[in-house]
Description:
Number of helices: 11
Helix content: 55-70%
Strand content: 5-15%
Distance between the termini: 18 Å
Number of strands: 4
Strand order of the largest sheet: 1-2-3-4
CATH superfamily of the largest domain: Outer membrane efflux proteins (OEP)
CATH class of the largest domain: Mainly Alpha
Largest sheet: 4 strands, antiparallel
Structural class: alpha+beta
Order of helices and strands: HHEHHEHHHHEEHHH
Amino acid sequence: xxEALARAGRLGEEAHIARAQVDIASTQVASARSAxxxxxxxxxxYVRTYASPFQIKVSPSAxxxxxxxxxxxxxxxxxxxxVNQYTANLTATQAIFSxxxxxxxxxxxxYQSASKLGLHEQLAETEYQVRTAYVRxxxxxxxxxSAREAVAQASRFLDQERxxxxxxxxxxxxxxxxxxxxxxxxxxxxxAQNAAALAxxxxxxxxxxxxxxxxVLTTRLTAPAVLPTDGLDPVTIASDRAAVQAEQQNVRIxxxxxxQAVAAYIPSLDFRMSLGRLMYPQEVFALNGxxxxxxxxxxxxxxxxxxxxFKRGADLTQARLGLQQEESRLAQLREAVQLQYQQxxxxxxxxxxxxxxxxxxxxxxxKVYDLxxxxxxxxxxxxxxxxxxxxxxxxxxxxYAQAVAQYYIxxxxxxxxxxxxxxxxxxxx
Length: 429
């Protein structure tokens, strides 16, 4: 079982998806944290102007006019109408006050915590599925072994009848009855083999074993040595369950969304500084280190929300409704966890009581079969009596194996209601 759980935790797609969700949440925390840090951007732009209303065209008659020279010199370094323009910018931005930054970071942290709790819950679900599939495969193997033993018994009984017929102490009718009894047991063996094969395939799927690869269970289905019947406080169970704690994080996220909706009414303040270098060469590639012009400025921007078509009010109402829904889901989940635990505990107790009763039935059925065979050898019982005793023993063993399997499945369901996962599964990364 531990090997199956470790393989499911290491190779199972469900566990991989849950772990990937934790990694995604970690990146979202980093992304939310980055909004409070300075932002630095750089750019380099080339602009080619083919026609512009700001281009100065000088007629040939005015080209020699010395009175226009100061005007041409005045506009020689301005960007208007220049054919080639290079711009290099370095811009720094820092949010000085934003009412949404702290809330966004808290939301990211809550989401990360919820994703970790979701991973714990998924591992518990994976363990429940693996344990259930493993027990069902064990049960199918036990039923197959019981059916095979019944066929072997019927085959030995048929051989005895044939020997008695040859010795003159038996009849052909007894041989025919033994043959019919054997043939009736063979379809049950085939059904048990098919059920065992399907149960093994389901287990292979969960532990990621190729369907064509052989898989042998190293442990048989045996009754537990101790049958616990004690229970825990359902209220404590609900508070400790990872799914409930994850939903609590969702409630906190919903509260922060309400806070963000309220923050939409609050002004924000940003600081921005830009350092630019500009150049207007006559030729495209006529770049040098002397003709660059400097453009350096800084600004403080206070953004005051005034009116946006009643969107802020609608967002706030929607956020409050979302919070009410999450709180209702949390209360509903607590009740469901408590009910799940009570049902699983009751089912395990019932299965434990059934094991004791089924064990007594198996012991009695074995004695009945042994005595019936002995009586038949002494001529005091008929072949029909032997067949009935064999069928009763087969059913008693099957019922006992099912009771044991139901106990382990109920115990797995009880552990699932607690949200617990074994070390063999949870330590795999």
